[in-house]
TrEMBL record:
<dbReference type="GO" id="GO:0008422">
    <property type="term" value="F:beta-glucosidase activity"/>
</dbReference>
<dbReference type="Pfam" id="PF00232">
    <property type="entry name" value="Glyco_hydro_1"/>
</dbReference>
<dbReference type="InterPro" id="IPR001360">
    <property type="entry name" value="Glyco_hydro_1"/>
</dbReference>
<comment type="similarity">
    <text>Belongs to the glycosyl hydrolase 1 family.</text>
</comment>
<dbReference type="GO" id="GO:0016052">
    <property type="term" value="P:carbohydrate catabolic process"/>
</dbReference>
<protein>
    <submittedName>
        <fullName>6-phospho-beta-glucosidase</fullName>
    </submittedName>
</protein>
<keyword id="KW-0326">Glycosidase</keyword>
<keyword id="KW-0378">Hydrolase</keyword>
<dbReference type="InterPro" id="IPR033132">
    <property type="entry name" value="GH_1_N_CS"/>
</dbReference>
<dbReference type="InterPro" id="IPR017853">
    <property type="entry name" value="GH"/>
</dbReference>
<dbReference type="GO" id="GO:0005829">
    <property type="term" value="C:cytosol"/>
</dbReference>
Length: 485
């Protein structure tokens, strides 16, 4: 029997937070950086989609350009993370800061030096970097010139980029993630954001699940090959590297006990979650994917040694984002709700955030078990959090008890999962410092422990302010997850 008193986080558990360069860094045209696909995304809102413009248009606001200016404020920001007691900081390297056009023959030394400085600052406070190599910021030139990941040439460009950063930071960075939310390409939303595939028409991002499946899955295959080659290369450069996948876990429940609903939930779990991780963790396409491709007339163009490449490039650990759960039903008339990447059906047992994302801490425990007992490798939760509108009181305080409640309940369920036997090694909350929303381009949809004075129109001082949750999370880390009150 397991003693209930053993329900504790491991003593070396990696507590921290997560960001992405394109949403956080700014300095979009400084230090030799080229344009990325994020730099041509306009502002949007919960009701008005972001638009993709082929070039930067005069008079249009692009919130990712300055974001929250980590580029100039990294020392201040990392000091704040250290004050909270962070053990780990998940960040991404902006590919176009290292290779401005993506296909350049030589890297940009000024960009490499910027990350030298960031990593040195993290080391100063003993904060472990967890680096995402590609996080929705493919160099724009690769999208325009090659149509993104549909073109196999991007595999070589990506591996060359990996070779440079692996060698540069081989004694500084231990944990690497090859592609952020790689399974986004199983959804139309990921066509541009994840696949760097240029849109047709008005530049709006589609939510029609069957749009562009042929090109999306071909692009995804090229990312699988790139990831596998990067894993093999990384292990050759430093055998101590730990290189992981990163999945946007879409937790699907059947709406009813109707067998059609149950089967549909399983099929969506397979297609949108496990297809990608089966390839990256097990090194081969699962049978259900092959059937889906055949039935949908999707033909993946593979080269002769691709299957061997996938086998030789299996990841060391599994990471994922978790924000919510969705219900699915074979009845198409059920009420739809929003979410991270996917749409679902309203769950009558759950409350939702201001953006309609259903709040389901127990779904995190279910997800952790579902993943771990499929793969039996270490797991990190590298994105989790509540996007909400925060109010600055007249005395300067920000009382985000709703965020504390959300995180507390999810951490409790992580404890339960550890007791279930899950090998959970880290937890980095999303947007630990307020940043630009990837989906909507808003600032008012805030996740952080640290408030940034910036609004949806780009106005504000960019000053940082500690929220109530800052002090709460500091206590959580100090007690290794024991004091959650």
């Amino acid at each position: 029997m397991v003693n209930k008193l053993d329900k504790k986080f491991p003593k070396d558990f990696l507590w921290g937070g997560a960001t992405a360069a394109n949403q956080f860094e700014g300095g979009y045209n400084e230090g030799g950086k080229g344009l990325s696909i994020a730099d041509v995304l306009t502002a949007g809102s919960h009701t008005v989609p972001r638009r993709i413009t082929p070039t930067i248009e005069d008079g249009m606001y692009y919130p990712n350009h300055e974001a929250v200016d980590f580029y100039h404020r990294y020392k201040e920001d990392i000091k704040l993370l250290a004050e909270m007691g962070f053990k780990a900081f998940r960040m991404s390297i902006a590919w176009s800061r290292i290779f401005p056009n993506g296909d350049d023959p030589e890297p940009n030394e000024e960009g490499l030096k910027f990350y030298d400085n960031v990593f040195a600052e993290l080391k100063k406070y003993n904060i472990e970097p967890i680096v995402t190599i590609s996080h929705y910021e493919t160099p724009l030139n690769l999208a325009i010139k090659y149509n993104g990941w549909v073109n196999r040439n991007l595999v070589d460009f990506y591996v060359r980029y990996c070779d440079v950063i692996f060698r540069r930071y081989k004694d500084i960075v231990k944990y690497w993630l090859t592609f952020n939310e790689i399974n986004a390409l199983t959804m139309p939303w990921g066509t541009f954001m994840a696949g760097a595939i240029m849109p047709n028409g008005n530049g709006e991002i589609s939510n029609n699940e069957t749009d562009n499946e042929q090109i999306r899955y071909q692009a995804l295959h090229h990312q699988f090959i790139a990831s596998a080659k990067a894993v093999k290369l990384g292990h050759e450069i430093n055998k101590d590297f730990k290189i992981g996948c990163m999945i946007a876990y879409m937790c699907f429940y059947p709406l009813t006990c109707n067998p059609d609903d149950v089967l549909l939930a399983q099929q969506k779990d397979n297609l949108h979650n496990f297809l990608c991780s089966d390839v990256q963790v097990r090194g081969e396409y699962p049978g259900f994917a092959k059937r889906y491709f055949e039935e949908k007339n999707i033909n993946i163009n593979m080269q002769e040694n691709d299957e061997q490449i996938l086998k030789e490039g299996k990841v060391d650990f599994y990471t994922f984002s978790y924000y919510m759960s969705n219900c699915v039903s074979a009845d198409q008339n059920e009420e739809k709700i929003g979410g991270n990447i996917s749409l679902g059906i309203k769950n009558p047992y759950l409350k939702a955030s201001d953006w309609g994302w259903q709040i389901d801490p127990k779904g995190l425990r279910w997800t952790l078990n579902n993943i771990y007992y499929r793969y039996q490798i270490p797991i990190m939760v590298v994105e989790n959090g509540l996007g909400a509108i925060d109010k600055v009181e007249t005395d300067g305080t920000i009382n985000d008890d709703y965020r504390i409640d959300y995180l507390r309940e999810h951490i409790k369920q992580m404890k339960e999962a550890i007791l279930d036997g899950v090998d959970l090694i880290g937890y980095t909350t999303w947007g630990c410092i307020d940043l630009v929303s990837a989906g909507t381009g808003e600032m008012k949809k805030r996740y952080g422990f640290i408030y940034v004075d910036r609004d949806d129109e780009g106005r504000g001082t960019l000053n940082r302010m500690k929220k109530k949750s800052f002090y709460w999370y500091k206590k959580v880390i100090e007690t290794n997850g024991e004091d959650l009150e």
